[in-house]
Amino acid sequence: MDKLFDAIRSGHLSHAYIIEGDALSGKYETAKRAAMAILCHEMPGEGCGRCSVCRKIEHENHEDIYHVYADESSLKDGAIAELQENLRHKPSAGERNIAIVEDADTMTVRAQNRFLKTLEEPNPGTVIFLLSENRDNLLPTIKSRCVTYRMPQVFDETNPYIELAAELLEKAEENVCFWEIKESLEKKVKDRKSAMAFLDAAEILLMRYFTGREKSMWSPEHIREVVDYVEEARKDINFNVNYKYALKNMLLKAGM
To answer: In angstroms, rounded to a whole number, what is the distance separating the alpha carbons of residues 232 and 178?
Structure first.
C-alpha cells in the first residue's frame, strides 16, 4: 500500500481506487488512513491522527466522507443512487468528498452500471475507494477506471476470528462432536460479514498447518480437503446461499 500513500503525498491522486483483500486484511482501516492523509491539514499526506479532521474520520462522522456497505448479501442499487446524490454536493468542510464503498464486489450489475457514471464523470476533488474481496466480480468497465491495490494477507493471532478458527479447528482435531462445534461457531458468527471473516481466518490457519508453520494432527491431504470445503462455503455465500446453511454444510463435509 506504500504506492497509494506515495500518490497522496505527491498530490498525484486518482479519482478512484479498488482496495482488494480478504475480510481480515484491514481494507476499511486502510481507506480511513488514506482519508486522513488526504484531508488532514496538520500533516498532509500522512494524517496526524490528533486534529479535529482526523478524529472525525476515526469516529466515522466526517461531513465529507460517505460510507456505504452491503445490505445482507449485496450492495443494492438504492444505496448507490443515494451515494451518487451525496457526491454531487460540494464538500461541507474542505475541498474533497470521499466515498468508502465496502463490499463493492457484491454490487448488483444494475448498481455497477449506475455507479459507472460517477466513475466516468466525478465531481472535482472526489476520491472513491471501492473495497473488494474479489475484483473479478466487478465489471471490466469499473475496473478499467480504478487504480487497484492488493492488501497483503496478515496473520494476527489476536484477531477474534483467528482465535475462533483456531479453537474450532482444535476441537475438530480432537473429534469434539459436530453440534458442540456448530454451537460455538453460531455464538460468534452472527451475519454474512462475520461468516466471511471466519472463513478467511480458517483458510489462513489451514494453510499454516499445511506448510508446517503451525502444528496439526491432520494429514496434508485432509487439510487440502478442508480448504476446498472452506472455499465452497465462501462461494455459496457469495451466491446468496444463507450463511448459516453454508457454514453448517462446511462443518459436515469437513467432518467437524
So the answer is: 19
